[in-house]
Amino acid sequence: MDRQMNMGTSGQQAQLGNVTVGVMTSPPDIITDKDLSYLKDALSWELLAMKKCSHWALNDILSTQKYLTDNYNIFVREASHEKLHQTVMGVFTRTNNCNRPACLVF
Fold first, then answer.
1. Three-state helix/strand/coil letters over 50-104
2. Residues 66-80: pLDDT tens digits?
3. Angle 33-77/82-98 helices, nearest 10 degrees?
């Protein structure tokens, strides 16, 4: 059965299968319990989706940061020249000190 809604040219009617139904042109004055339940359900799904997106984005950022930090640490430990090691270690120390809460600016 075809359940796709086809809008009419006037914008006042929609076709749902064999039944023509009216289209709401303005919001109602009141919201019924059923409407409220539908809105709560829709918004809770939106909230859940946003929480999952936030979780996975943070997870990806943290894993990337860990990967970069681990490789940077390997580079610092295995630097072949003392001057290169001291330069990179200085950058590493300044970056590490700046990550403390006193250095963060919001």
1. HHHHHHHHHHHHHHHHHHHHHHHHHHHHCCCCHHHHHHHHHHHHHHHHHCCCCCC
2. 888 888 878 877 777
3. 150
Sheet-wide strand order for 13-16:
5-7, 13-16, 19-22
pTM reported for the whole predicted model: 0.45
Strands 13-16 and 19-22: what pairing? antiparallel
Residue 92: alpha-carbon gap to chain centroid: 30
Output the six-digit token pair for 20.
């023509």
The DSSP letter of residue 22 is: E
Q: Where are the domains of the chain?
A: 31-97
What radius of gyration do the chain's Cα atoms show? 29
